[in-house]
Amino acid sequence: MLQSQVMVRETDFARLAHTWEELAERMKEHGDATTPSKLLQLANKTKHAELNIAFCGHFSAGKSTMINTLLGVNLLPSNPIPTSANVVKIRGGEKAARVYTMNSGVLTFDPDTEMEKLKQFAVDGDTVESVEVSYPGTFLDEYSSLLDTPGIDSTDAAHKIATESALHLADVIIYMMDYNHVQAEENFNFTKTLKDRGKPVYLVVNMIDKHLDFELDFDSYKESVEEAFANWNIRPDGIFYTSLAEPDHPENQYDEFKAMLSRLIEGREELVGQSVRSAAEHLIDEHVQVLKRANERLRQEWESRLDGIEVADLDQRDAAAVQEALKEVEAEAAALENRAEEARRNMEKELGVLLDNARLTYFSTNEAAQSYLESKKPGFKLGFLFAGKKTEEERARREEALLADLREKVAGNLDFHFKELMGKQLQAYNIRDEEYHAAVHATEIKITPEFLASHIKDGAQSREYVMNYCNDLANGIKLEYRRAGLGFIEQIVSRLGQQVQAESGELQARLAVLRELAAVHAKLAELAAGEQAAREQLQAIMQKGEQAS
Predict the structure, then answer these.
(1) What is the mean pLDDT of residues 477-501?
(2) Which of helix, strand or coil describes residue 53?
(3) Residues 143/137, Cβ–Cβ less than 8 Å
């Protein structure tokens, strides 16, 4: 049963390692030349479920001495000056020492007889990539390692790079500090970075033999340390106070510290399983940052173009504000372009409503029309003596009666309202034109005898015929008013067209600028979308690999 569980765990780690390798290939396809190598390192570590405990801190905090003491053998140099430019990895197993160089391949040494040569490579940050020592007889096994990293306070930038480049391989961080330098800001910055990466972080305050009780009791000192880190919102997984110079110091927690390391090694597989997943997630973030740096020149060019385009009352770097302004101006431009025709439609509609509702014929009109139509019948005459003259006079009287009735109805029910409507139309569009108003008020639709005669049709003059004749007269009058109204509307539309042309120049110029800004923001969004797509692709691969394991 135990062997079966071991096989399952090994298979799970192998699947995760394969996932990291797949992530590395995708990152290479994205043009990343740095992060894939870290993922391949992580994959190799994952295959063996190897636990790495990294010792970080100032070079003077005693990291190398602490590691030598824990191992029970002096494998690392311990000097009062920075002694490591590279990460030195020490694990259990068969005795061997390897130096991984940039140009000469892998160099091997005997840890017992050639350690001085090995130590020289440890401080060579130019031609050496890493140093690895395996040594039997310590509390480490072949799958558990201690990493001695360069001091974080070294002025040599390569030291810091070496430290940070090793963090993705570290499952646990031991952060060591000199008793007198706990309050250094670099301690808080570095440990916060580590905690933000989700790493277990244990603090070791070393050289507590420097403490003087008469200045401050030790309990108060410990409280001040815990409070200082809490103020930075840093909650370490444990704090140990140690002294290697005075092993019998009453506050020395060296034994507790070593026991804690042994417990971590016992729980290696669970710890590594959590750690490698967290490291892979961080490397995905790191990869996206690489893509962002690769896009930085383009991004700066586009942002520079944004800064070179100024629009009144608008922050040109605010993509949402630019898009909103563009929509508003496009809507305004469309409305402006359609203003004249929209006005035409509205005015024609109002004119149509006025004419449709204007009643021009009443009972009196029908009576006058019937009398008029009778006088137009062939054979119509009055009396016997002087009949011709009387007939013509009667015809003229009846014609004038119909004309007077119609003119009265038109004047009261149509002409006044027509001129009022046409006069208001110009004002509705903020146009002033005295000649136009004069022309409107001078409009005269003449109702003449010829107009009456032109609408007479052949046929029996029944009552229905009289009503149809009156309707024809009303429609004929309205048609003339419609023609006159459409003429005035055309004048207004022409004036509106001139207005639109004048306003359009300024609006089109603003529209062109906003479209240029929107195009630049689209390019910036395209860069961000590409970066996000790369992240989502890698996260999907990682999620699939985790589900399989």
Answers:
(1) 89
(2) strand
(3) no
Q: Pairing mode, if any, of strands 106-109 and 96-101?
A: antiparallel
Residues 83/106, Cβ–Cβ less than 8 Å: no
Closest to 194 measured CA to CA, from 202, 206, 184, 205: 202
Bridge-based pairing of strands 144-148 and 88-91 is: antiparallel
pLDDT at position 10, please? 65
Placement of tokens 């824990």 in the chain: 70
Rounded CA-CA distance 328/533 in Å is 31
Cα separation, 402 vs 374, whole angstroms? 12
Average pLDDT rounded to a whole number, residues 436-453 = 92
* CA gyration radius, the chain: 49
Per-residue model confidence as pLDDT tens digits over 214-257: 778 899 999 999 999 999 999 999 999 999 999 999 999 999 99
Cα 146 to Cα 129: distance, rounded to the nearest angstrom: 17
For residue 203, count CB atoms less than 10 angstroms from its CB and return exposed for 0-12, middle for 13-18, buried for 19 or more: buried
The full 3-state SS of 374-390, as one line of letters, equals HHCCCCCCCCCCCHHHH
Q: How far apart are CA 139 and CA 132, in angstroms?
A: 17
Contact 30, 537 (CB under 8 A): no
- Are 1 and 528 spatial neighbours (Cβ–Cβ below 8 Å)? no
Classify 106 as helix, strand or coil: strand
Q: Which two tokens stand for residue 103?
A: 């140009």
For residue 472, what are its two tokens? 């024809």
Q: Cβ(149)–Cβ(87) under 8 Å? A: yes
Query: What is the 8-class DSSP label of residue 411?
Result: I
What sign results for the dihedral spanned by CA atoms 345, 350, 356, 361?
negative
β partners of residue 133: 90, 97
Identify whether the C-beta of residue 148 lies closer than 8 Å to the C-beta of residue 90. Answer: yes
C-alpha 342/C-alpha 428 separation (Å) is 13
d(CA 257, CA 242): 8
- Whole-number Å distance between alpha carbons of 186 and 159: 15
Helix (H) or strand (E) holding 247: none
- The residue to which tokens 């507590």 are assigned: 208
Tokens of 312: 């009144």
Residue 441, C-beta contacts closer than 8 angstroms, at least 6 positions apart: 419, 423
